[in-house]
Write a structure and sequence with these properties.
single chain; about 270 residues; Rossmann fold; seven-stranded mixed beta sheet; two-stranded parallel ribbon; 8 helices; globular
């Protein structure tokens, strides 16, 4: 839907406004009706505000790889988009893609421990039983059944919010106000940010605010219409980051992920 990524929604898209309101009400109802379970080990969620590829899976890969380098035993939890089976299972390097999904299979082939299934609270328990001491929840911002210790929110710096409308009128799953919901456990990770010029929309998202933190880095993704591609997040250099220390795990991320991925800090917010 190319009109999603235009700076202004076309006039005819106003016809979709009733459906946008229905989506907004449904999302609020879903969020309010969920009671979050708590995993027995720390959990890092990687997600975004929009549909499409902002680079969530490469960021999850980068975080998990750096956790391994620190001697931790991370496990990635994924719904396994596009898979045909509904059962919870661990992904192996040789798993059929139709059973586990393409992105979980890619992560497993890169040496990560990956679990897929529709109930990620169940996956968290399964991963803990098999020795994981930290969990990475892929595409987790809108998943409200699991409490998390850190929300990493990936945003494409070249087009962070598209036309600014919720589905189906625009690409947003949630409005930017969701950044307030994550509070002190939230970090922004910017993809395609290396050569970014002034952008009032993006600067508004990154403005220091109480109970939130922000970060930025370049990362790769399969992309959405009108989006640029860049190098993988663990191989690019010249990244800029904006972060803070909202919790001990936030300090860990700031001290290891960005340093090993070539990032440099540009400021703090508390």
């Amino acid at each position: 839907m190319s009109f999603w990524w235009a700076r202004e929604a076309p006039l005819w898209s106003a016809l979709l406004s009733p459906l946008e309101l229905v989506y907004r009400a449904g999302a609020a109802l879903h969020r309010g009706s969920r009671r979050a379970a708590h995993a027995k080990v720390p959990l890092i969620s990687v997600g975004n505000l929009t549909v499409g590829g902002a680079g969530k899976t490469p960021v999850a890969l980068c975080i998990a790889q750096r956790l391994i380098a620190r001697g931790r035993r991370p496990a990635v939890l994924s719904r396994g988009y596009g898979r045909r089976l509904r059962k919870a299972q661990q992904v192996s390097k040789d798993s059929p893609v139709r059973e586990v999904g393409d992105e979980p299979l890619l992560l497993a082939q890169r040496g990560l421990t990956v679990f897929v299934g529709p109930r990620r609270a169940l996956l968290a328990a399964l991963a803990g039983e098999r020795g994981a001491d930290v969990l990475v929840l892929d595409d987790g911002l809108q998943h409200h059944a699991l409490a998390r210790d850190l929300d990493v929110i990936v945003i494409d710096a070249t087009n962070p919010l598209g036309n600014g409308h919720l589905l189906p009128r625009g690409p947003l799953r949630e409005r930017p106000a969701a950044l307030r919901r994550v509070g002190p456990r939230g970090l922004l990770w910017l993809s395609n940010a290396r050569d970014r010029g002034p952008d009032l929309e993006l600067d508004g998202l990154l403005a220091p605010r109480p109970r939130s933190c922000a970060a930025s880095a370049s990362s790769s993704s399969r992309g959405s219409p009108g989006r640029r591609r860049s190098r993988p997040p663990c191989s690019a250099s010249g990244r800029r980051s904006r972060g803070g220390a909202g919790s001990a795990i936030t300090i860990f991320i700031l001290g290891t992920i960005w340093r090993h991925c070539g990032g440099r800090r540009t400021g703090r917010c508390w």
